Amino acid sequence: MSITPTIYKTPSERYLLVLVVVIPGAALYNWSDEEGNNHWFFSVQRMKIAIAGTGYVGLSNAVLLAQHNTVVALDIMPDKVAMINQRQSPIADDTIEEYLATKKLDLIATTNADVAYQDVDFVIVATPTNYDPETQHFDTSTVQAVIADVRAQNPRATIIIKSTVPVGFTEEMRKTFKTRKIIFSPEFLREGKALHDNLYPSRIIVGSDSKPAHRFAELLQQAAIKRDIDVLFVDSTEAEAIKLFANTYLAMRVAYFNELDTYAEIHGLSTKQIVHGVSLDPRIGDYYNNPSFGYGGYCLPKDTKQLQANFHDIPHNVISAIVEANTTRMKHIADMIQMLKPKVVGIYRLTMKMDSDNFRQSSIQGVISFLREYGVKVVIYEPALTVANFEGMAVYKSLDEFKEQADVVVANRITEEITDITHKIYSRDLFSRD
Ligand SMILES: NC(=O)c1ccc[n+]([C@@H]2O[C@H](COP(=O)([O-])OP(=O)(O)OC[C@H]3O[C@@H](n4cnc5c(N)ncnc54)[C@H](O)[C@@H]3O)[C@@H](O)[C@H]2O)c1
């Protein structure tokens, strides 16, 4: 809240002290009664919001919205719930940690769905949608379970799906549950910068033009630090397509620069020079062009495969090529490592990005699979692992011992702590950025 004293001079030459009070989220409302009298009232509209799933998406949205609303975060994992209630972040994210520790947040976490969904205006769904290779589709069972629970317990609530879903899923749910109160709103955050990306969103997209859809967009805008955010209200199926096409474009860009690098590596050319020359075209741009072992992480591998599945009866080439290019790239990396004839390959970090705290679907794991198929001995250095053995490979606690053991050290990204062994590093990290 801010209070600004202002002095006005009235037409009768009198001075008037006016206090301008600005309360975030407050609004001045006007209504006319049956006799035509105007009534003004001032209201701070706090919403009651439940969020199912306290991972990267759920927790960042919970913290974001708890600045101005009452938020109940629900998870099936009691440890996560306990940590959030102690104002500790279960995931590595500087801004979430800072906000939990220092900001006034109206936030509680629970494992009890009955408590969470009671009396809430909105339920945000942020549960996992893993890709199932058997069905070649996302497994949306957690999202469906949340929708069923909410519809049974609090049919008044509007459900906002933030989990990434197949194109057409929300419309299907609206038919199944006979309600329009299910809206898809894609999430664009990056892991490790989840809350930052919601405080400064690239855009807000809501898959409906209804009143609750506008209200939800207002809540996101109110909580953000960035002003003048592009807000789009589109059809729910279009919103789902936006999410999958955006992630598939990012995957394509990674795959493109990786394939450029494969070409340069095989022909003994400088990838750095080629990428620099290519990226000087402003339509291409000098960003998101650092070669890697492949795109990875929780989202890009599964979202590209889901979009490919959505294309099954539609003529296409590019979408499938993006998926295939990633496997080809990982195999190429393994082939190049094998050509060095190593006795022991040391994998430096299983993570994708420099500051990541997880290694879900990291591309280096694809490279490891190929190396092991070739019979190469692989050992690992990964401080995020507490076990001594990971899928049959020795995990070193001591970085020095690890460096001694391996004659080739494979690193998707090179950091300070391995610059003393550059002579035995195999990496395609050319620009020291993600
Ligand atoms: N991670 C990202 O960068 C990102 C970005 C955009 C969209 N998404 C999408 O958002 C969704 C969630 O991703 P995430 O990375 O936050 O996942 P996550 O795995 O980090 O978190 C999911 C959480 O949901 C909980 N959960 C599982 N089933 C539940 C249930 N029935 N009720 C309540 N909680 C339940 C899990 O315990 C976990 O804490 C996915 O669909 C993902 O594709 C993720």
Strand residue content: 15-25%
How far the N terminus sits from the C terminus, by CA atoms, comes to 38 Å
Relative helix content:
25-40%
Q: Which overall shape is indicated by the principal axes computed on the Cα atoms?
A: globular
What small ligands are held by the chains? nicotinamide-adenine-dinucleotide
From the coordinates shown, what is the CATH architecture of the largest domain?
Answer: 3-Layer(aba) Sandwich
> How much is the radius of gyration in Å?
26 Å
Low-confidence stretches: 29-34, 39-43
Structural notes for this entry:
This protein is an alpha/beta fold and 434 residues long. It has three domains: 2-44, no CATH class; 48-234, NAD(P)-binding Rossmann-like Domain (Rossmann fold); 244-426, NAD(P)-binding Rossmann-like Domain (Rossmann fold). It is built from 14 helices and 20 strands. The protein has helices at 56-65, 78-85, 94-102, 113-117, 141-153, 169-176, 194-199, 211-223, 236-267, 271-279, 300-310, 318-338, 363-373, 399-405; strands at 2-9, 15-22, 26-32, 38-44, 48-52, 70-74, 107-110, 122-125, 131-132, 137-138, 158-161, 182-184, 204-206, 231-233, 344-348, 377-381, 389-390, 393-396, 408-410, 425-426. It has a six-stranded parallel sheet, with helices on both faces. β11, α6 and β12 (182-184) form a beta-alpha-beta unit. α9 crosses α11 and α11 (300-310) crosses α12 (318-338). Mean pLDDT is 93; it is low at 29-34 and 39-43. The structure holds nicotinamide-adenine-dinucleotide (NAD). Nicotinamide-adenine-dinucleotide binds at residues 52-58, 74-77, 80, 126-129, 142, 145-146, 162-164, 187, 189, 191, 298-299.
